[in-house]
Specification:
Distance between the termini: 35 Å
Number of strands: 4
Strand order of the largest sheet: 1-2-3-4
Largest sheet: 4 strands, parallel
Order of helices and strands: HEHEHEHEHH
Length: about 120
């Protein structure tokens, strides 16, 4: 992963890497392992907006690690990500549509909520 990231960082401004693990502790450890392996201030850690992901995001926020909150399906999750100070939000438009939600409307709602929080 570090070789791929460093190669990519020669060509892009930022590199996102998805952390994995079934608990907040495992997500946090994986995130820290990625940060140490890649060793770049242009690395963004991707974490899911699940209970454990949110706990890990909160811990990493205190270490000033940039975060992309993934698997966002509605405005409540967007509010949570914004309140945590996440740098990016990744709404899952296709999956929202698969769940018979109007994904575009959901994304617009998320944007309106986040804009209103600023």
């Amino acid at each position: 992963v570090s070789k791929l990231a460093l190669t990519a960082l020669d060509r892009v401004e930022e590199f996102m890497a998805q952390a994995w693990g079934g608990t907040a502790d495992k997500l946090e450890k994986c995130s820290l392992d990625l940060v140490h392996a890649i060793n770049s201030d242009r690395l963004i850690i991707k974490l899911p907006l699940t209970f454990d992901g949110i706990v890990a995001m909160n811990r990493l926020r205190h270490r000033n690690i940039p975060i992309c909150a993934t698997a966002c399906y509605d405005r409540r999750q967007a509010i949570t990500a914004s309140a945590l100070g996440c740098n990016y939000l990744a709404p899952y438009l296709g999956r929202m549509s698969d769940l018979k939600k109007n994904g575009l409307t959901q994304c617009l709602d998320m944007q309106n909520v986040i804009t209103g929080m600023r």
